[in-house]
Design a protein that fits this description.
Helix content is 52%, strand content 13%. The protein is built from 18 helices and 8 strands. A hairpin with a 2-residue loop joins strand 2 and strand 3. Helix 6 packs across helix 7. The radius of gyration is 22 Å and the shape is globular. 51% of the residues are buried.
């Protein structure tokens, strides 16, 4: 089992191995939901490790939201066929994919589901084959795969699964144990493969997120709790972020995500070649005839990928986010002159307040706010922005003041997405 997980007794282990000799669609649904829960529990850990490809501290949030979309897709499914449940998970993950890590995670599920086509249940050998297809699909979705990332962890997982089956593993539980151990070891090796991680003194955040998702499945199968994080981490601001920023690939000023349906069969090689002329950090996901493109581009090129994709088919949705502003804002927020936030410790009550300007922010800080979220009537913060402020606090007990009727719902959504004891006071004005 995973190095950080309590082991069960031998007799219980044998019973559990027999219970999970094969699994059906409902078993997979419960395991996926457990993976999401454990990922959320350790979301702050994953966020704090995020230095590649852009040090914006949101990998854990992106992976959690991607898995939330996947689990929403199967929340009420009564299907026993593992093939159909796996396809639903893959579809939900694709539709809800956020950022690099989310897109790659969705493609891991896509490949996993493809290997299970027309199968009612999954045994150990089929699970190994599904993990191999997950690895292959994820690698194909990245133009220039980088080792020392979530891709490497997926590759090591597939290898461990194959070796386990060849070594006589007969239960999906046995296989999952080997895979979790392999993921743990693979994550520990990521700094040796990716210099930016070694410079920042961290392991890869996406790989760690994948490890937590798999470990959550194993913990659930073994009856272990999913509500207490397995590690405490230093805050993001204490990591050697400047070295990481200096090593980030240039030209990553904008993050573009485009969902589209091509008018005719997509020539992937030509598609990738054209995209490489525009930017970096390229991932392409596919599911049910829809493609999702993720790319980082330099200034003044943020609409080139959109225009190119539009020439190939019909765009259903696209987003354009300024990565440089996100990183700069995080740095500025931590040094904002005249604002000194309250210091809180584990077990203490913290207040997060939404403030429409620097003056109101100073007032809230003087009254004891532990975190501030910029926003107001004409600049409503997203659920993700509120969630980030909450997750970066070292305590579980948090009150949030949205201070605007248009922000109350976003705050309530954040409360549903965190495992912390977050209470929303529905304040409609400052």
């Amino acid at each position: 089992m995973s190095l950080g997980m309590p082991r069960v007794g031998e007799a219980l282990h044998e019973r559990l191995a027999e219970r999970y000799r094969t699994i059906d669609g409902q078993d997979l649904r419960r395991l996926a939901e457990a993976g999401l829960t454990w990922l959320r529990t350790n979301q702050q850990t994953v966020n704090s490790l995020n230095v590649f490809p852009v040090p914006d501290g949101d990998t854990g949030t992106n992976m959690s939201l991607t898995m939330q979309s996947a689990c929403d897709e199967i929340a009420d499914i009564g299907e026993l066929s593992i093939s159909r449940v796996a396809k639903a998970i893959a579809h939900g993950a694709l539709m809800g994919a956020r950022g690099n890590s989310g897109v790659i995670l969705s493609q891991l599920w896509r490949g996993f589901a493809r290997a299970l086509d027309d199968h009612a249940t999954m045994d150990a050998a089929m699970m190994a084959a599904a993990l191999a297809e997950a690895r292959d699909t994820a690698y194909k979705g990245v133009v220039q795969p980088v080792e020392g990332t979530i891709l490497t962890v997926a590759k090591d997982n597939a290898l461990a699964a194959r070796e386990a089956v060849e070594g006589g593993a007969w239960s999906t539980l046995q296989l999952l144990e080997r895979v979790v151990d392999a993921a743990d070891e693979s994550v520990r090796r990521t700094p040796d493969l990716l210099p930016v991680l070694k410079e920042a003194g961290v392991v890869d955040s996406g790989g760690k997120g994948l490890f937590f998702m798999l470990e959550g499945m194993l913990r659930f199968a073994c009856g272990q709790p999913l509500d207490k994080p397995g590690a405490t981490v230093q805050p993001l601001s204490s990591v050697a972020m400047q070295e990481a920023r200096d090593a980030v690939e240039p030209g990553q000023d904008w993050e573009i995500v485009v969902d589209f349906h091509p008018s005719e069969e997509l020539n992937l090689k030509a598609f990738y070649r054209r995209l490489e002329e525009m930017g970096t950090s390229i991932q392409v996901g596919e599911g049910d005839g829809m493609y999702r493109l993720h790319i980082h581009v330099p200034d003044e090129a943020q609409y080139r990928p959109v225009e190119y994709v539009q020439s190939l088919g019909t765009i259903s949705k696209f987003t354009v986010e300024n990565l440089a502003d996100q990183v700069a804002e995080r740095a500025a927020a931590s040094k904002r002159e005249g604002i000194k936030l309250a210091s809180v410790e584990s077990g203490q009550l913290a207040v997060v307040a939404v403030a429409p300007g620097a003056g109101i922010a100073r007032v809230f800080a003087s009254l004891g706010a532990a975190a501030l979220v910029e926003g107001g009537q004409t600049m409503n913060p997203s659920t993700q922005e509120i969630l980030a402020a909450v997750e970066n606090l070292p305590t579980e007990k948090i009150i949030i003041l949205p201070n605007n009727k248009n922000i109350v719902l976003a705050a309530q959504q954040a409360a549903e997405l965190t495992v912390r004891k977050l209470t929303v006071v529905p304040s409609v004005s400052v």
